[in-house]
Amino acid sequence: MIHETIKGVDISMLKEVESLGGEYFINNENTDIFDILRVNGVNVIRLRLWVDPYDEKGAPYLGGTNDLNTTIELAKRAKAQNMSFMLNLHYSDFWTDPKKQTKPKEWTSLTGEALINQVYDYTKNVLQICRDNDVMPDYIQIGNEITNGMLWPEGKTPTYLFDERKFEDEENEGNENSYYNLSQLLKAGIHATREMASSKHLKIILHLDFGGANDLYRRWFDEISKYALDYDIIGLSYYPYWHGDLNELKFNLDDISQRYSKDVLIVETAYAFTDKAPANEDSIFNKELADIAGYSPSIQGQKKFLYDVMKTVQDVGGPHHKGLGIVYWEPAWLPVKGTSWSSLEGMKYGNDMANTGNHWANQGLFDFNGNALDSLKVFNDF
Length: 382
What we know:
The chain has one domain (6-381): Glycosidases (TIM Barrel), CATH 3.20.20. 32% of the residues lie in helices and 14% in strands. It has helices at residues 14-19, 33-39, 68-80, 112-132, 176-196, 214-225, 246-259, 287-293, 299-314, 344-350, and strands spanning 6-10, 25-26, 29-30, 44-49, 84-89, 139-142, 160-161, 166-167, 203-208, 233-237, 263-269, 323-329. 50% of the residues are buried.
């Protein structure tokens, strides 16, 4: 079966940016961003969902403050352009990734069967509201970057040590019960999804980070496969300055798609069009990361990376077409005044403290003023 190539973007930050005055331009003309994305070949919109991204005083955590109303609003705009919708459930009130998987505030006391039931009920309720609003997703992630599990501590698994590229328990293989516990939480979300989906059209994704680490994927999916989870796609994050080179990515994609008989999809990737940060902002990306990645920090370098990673994924599985495509992470996060990855209270919630602001703007597919870059045109090449 030949799949349509997924040419996706995650624009979960969009409502926050637009509410602060952010605008988008193509050929110097102010244009709705969904129109810009569509004419450049984008066909999938990924949106994250947090349970309750507000502090005790009702102030937003920022980072898009992606509650259900915000997600529904953006999904409607995507569906109006005949784009597919990928829903990214974090099962948290704020950011989740391998170093933080904080339970929602209202779920803190839940454990065991009560927590499993809550995952089921929450997932089913979200999808019912999506259905009621005519925005049923086409793809759904049960968790975000669940390399080390989710809904900690109950769903925690052995930690993959990023710098050492090994599991913390590699010498003794760790506690298998941790993968069992995680599998029960995942099954609850999957079961709710299958009940709400009218057919297998809604594809379920399990998503880890570090796309070039084959040892991570083999260990994690070997363990989770013992529990016969009903999912469709292995999702990966791949940032070339953190997650290995394209040869490592290709090896991993080829191996896991064959080993687990699953389609594979890069659900997060990005690269910078400059190593300069906007005025008065910090930046994750710098010249040192460009040197690691091997692409120039320029529009041409960004364009070359985007083409190379899409071609790498497209070629997975040869004639069996196991590589579905990519989703570019936050290409439209402009450095407008007031936008931030987090409020102070949001940082405290996730126990992840850093400077406020937009640290991602130089990895967008729009310049700091909202002008569409030439690299955005690469999607039309596939």
